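User: My notes are a mess, but here's the protein and adenosine-5'-triphosphate's SMILES. Can you give me a structure?
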Amino acid sequence: MAPHSSQLKSASRAVHVRNLMRRFATKTILDRVDLDIAEGEFVALLGRSGSGKSTFLKALAGLDHDVQGTGTLETPENLSVVFQDARLLPWRTVIQNVTLGLPGPAGQEAGRKALAEVGLEGREAAWPNQLSGGEQQRVALARSLVRQPSLLLADEPFGALDALTRLKMHDLLRELCARHRPAVLLVTHDVDEAISLADRILVLDEGHLIEDLRIDLPTPRDHGDPRFAKIRTQLLSRLGVETPGRRAA
Ligand SMILES: Nc1ncnc2c1ncn2[C@@H]1O[C@H](COP(=O)(O)OP(=O)(O)OP(=O)(O)O)[C@@H](O)[C@H]1O
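Assistant: No problem, the inputs look usable. Here's the predicted complex:
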């Protein structure tokens, strides 16, 4: 049976999930998962490949009509989704991609402002194929944020970018989220990315959220901070990855 799926009722929560199930054939990917995300909270979701991270995100995004369970799935109406590939319409310019569905001069103005916020001022008339991968992802972020979402769902948004561009995108996302304060669920493989950005980190394994860790380090986060290293070791252990230090112990 599909869970009771509806718009959010509580003002202080951006996500309220109870008893979410998802099976593919005989395989249970999400096994009675519960989760609350507060307004403005930045949550990262880690898990091994195939653990069901994207399945979970799609359920929250309302993109999976076959989720099961008898519980609750409440998300805000104004949510945005960003994927690993920017998914821009190649036959529309950058500004047209950002303002799609936004009417009139106010929409244009909001689109220009969003593009300036992601560092693409002056590129409004460019075509997607004239942009680098990182720039295309900036457009995808602008397209999401121009709608002022209460919830941003991001599925490996920087997974296809080189390491340097990814670090720049971390700074940008951190700034944008500090300014606009959407709740965020960021799916990532990258433990350091999760620790750099999130207020809270979840680990999904065998259908369950086996870790729910609050990150209280100051931002921007210093990768050399021993507390950062300790959290990394803890998360890698939850992911079943042995670090050299642990092996020696
Ligand atoms: N539509 C589908 N039909 C059948 N099986 C599916 C479907 N979608 C996902 N799966 C299976 O569900 C499991 C979880 O997939 P999912 O993409 O959610 O994992 P993930 O944690 O996001 O993986 P990755 O990190 O590799 O992207 C996988 O075993 C996958 O093969």
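The mean pLDDT is 92.
User: Great, I'll file this with my notes.
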